[in-house]
Design brief:
The chain is mostly helical. The chain has one domain. Helices cover about 40% and strands about 10% of the residues. The protein contains six helices and four strands; from the N terminus they run αββααβαβαα. A two-stranded antiparallel sheet has the order 1-2. It has a two-stranded parallel sheet with strand order 3-4. The longest helix has about 35 residues. It is globular and about 45 Å long.
């Protein structure tokens, strides 16, 4: 069952929205510069968009029905995530896979953007749209989500809250590389969900800065 709203969830959402709006204003010149560099250094669009698994908005209505706006047959909604393109343009038939730091699909500019997590900046607009918060479990691609849900019993429990640009797992652990690393992140995501609050989000936002600037922790 989806997580029941808490008294502090509105304050947490207001905080995430306000910080996202402020960051968009402050980073607008940087985002424009990045967009130009991406377009000039490799063919293709500056912004990359991809379907991701979002929050589970089901509610118990007494008859087991699901929210009619549900788009994905796993009990959760699908939304379009925005990122600066960091890879060479691939064919639409390319399978959904994890990208490693040494992935040959990554462009030279993309490698720098990923290193400092600057490719995630367009997701601030996802926060304004209500698809995401700044802080929350990272949203996964639908095919990978379906596979991991079958392998890890608690994986779908991450969808109890809005996904995030950063999170407790992202500031504490490195990139996913195998099922055990995913299992460790799921454990931290569920810990965050249990103790989530506006104060906790502020702490995680502050911890994200060293990850970006000093490239510590998860990327």
């Amino acid at each position: 069952m989806p997580e029941r709203p808490r008294a502090g969830d509105r304050a947490r959402r207001a905080l995430n929205f306000t910080v996202a709006l402020l960051l968009i204003v402050l980073t607008a010149p940087l985002m424009l510069t990045i967009a130009i560099l991406v377009r000039l250094t490799s063919p293709g669009p500056a912004i990359y968009h991809q379907p991701r698994v979002g929050i589970d908005r089901r509610r118990n209505r007494g008859n087991g029905s699901l929210n009619p706006r549900r788009l994905f047959d796993c009990g959760v909604q699908i939304f379009t995530i925005y990122k600066f393109r960091t890879m060479y343009v691939s064919t639409p038939e390319a399978p959904q896979t994890w990208a490693s730091g040494s992935d040959p699909r990554i462009t030279p500019v993309g490698r720098v953007l990923r290193s400092f997590r600057l490719d995630e900046l367009p997701q601030l607009f996802n926060v304004l749209k209500g698809d995401m918060n700044i802080v929350g479990p990272r949203p996964e691609q639908p095919d990978i989500f379906a596979d991991l849900s079958g392998d890890l019993r608690q994986y779908r429990a991450r969808q109890r809250v809005l996904p995030g640009i950063t999170g407790l797992a992202q500031v504490s652990l490195p990139y996913d590389s195998d099922l055990d690393s995913v299992r460790r992140k799921v454990k931290m995501d569920l810990e965050y969900i249990r103790r989530r609050s506006a104060a906790e989000d502020l702490v995680i936002m502050a911890k994200t800065m060293p990850v970006m600037v000093l490239r510590k922790g998860s990327k």
